[in-house]
Amino acid sequence: MKNNSSKKNFKSGFVSIIGRPNVGKSTLMNSLVGEKIAIMSDKPQTTRNQIRAIYNDDEMQIVFMDTPGIQKPQNRLGDYMLKVSHSSMRDTDVILFVVDDSKSIGKKDSDIIETLKTNKSKKILAINKIDKLSKEELMVLINMYSKIGIFDEIVPVSALKGTNNDTLIKVLAKYMEAGPLYFPVDMITDQPEKVLVSEIIREKLLMYTDQEIPHGIAVDIEAMKKRKDKDIIDISAVIYCERESHKKIIIGSQGRKIKGIGKAAREELEMILGSKIFLELWVKVKENWRDRENYIRSFGYEDK
């Protein structure tokens, strides 16, 4: 793809993807840019930081910002995540509000809508998971959200299947303005490599552990170095949890679970990084780290 940012009609802008937990925001962002940028899980609050993914074509650049699901905080980490989401809504050209196939507007969605009413950015509603809806059910939802009167456009999508991705990109393009190329055309995210590695490991932890445990897990990359004269990257990572009982569950009987987590993470990292990976995982306990400011910051959850 050529660098067309000097073209007279080149457009660019920022799109903040918001919504309550578990509606498919990260899946939608990954689908729109055609690459896995944000980790995905069926467990709520998977996304903790703002994650940027960059869409490029010959006419424009869209910088998508995936944000933590908006809900009432339960701890200091939750406070930070809510702050990230609200900050993203202030610093954007377009807000892409994602809802799912729920047949009615619940309290969490209603609270977000109330916040959006005072926001001056353009607002696009994406109704996700339409593969689970009949045409009649979808029309009911579209009419229901249309009556609220704050959305510039409503686009039904299926993030999992990529349904209407092109339509959504065309709609967003209408609200991009003449602007520069914010990132190089071959760049798909501004995440540092270590952050990407820690997030992939955390994704596998989400897959392998029960509902209660994932919320209290953090991953810290202690060392990451490519070997001299060999196509091998050595990675040493520490998995932090909040209880000894959680540590035992993560490790599993005879270390089987941690081995499975490590194997799954290593295989995906080898595909992403294009090198052989030697991955060493450790599990440590930091009690109530989500309510301790120093730990929250040390794990990378801090205001930029």
TrEMBL record:
Subcellular location: Cytoplasm; Cell membrane
UniProt keyword rRNA-binding, yes or no: yes
Membrane topology classification: Peripheral membrane protein
CDD domains reported for this sequence: Era, KH-II_Era
GO biological process terms held by the UniProt record: ribosomal small subunit assembly
Keywords: Cell membrane, Cytoplasm, GTP-binding, Membrane, Nucleotide-binding, Ribosome biogenesis, RNA-binding, rRNA-binding
Protein name: GTPase Era
Phylogenetic placement of the source organism: Bacteria, Bacillati, Bacillota, Clostridia, Peptostreptococcales
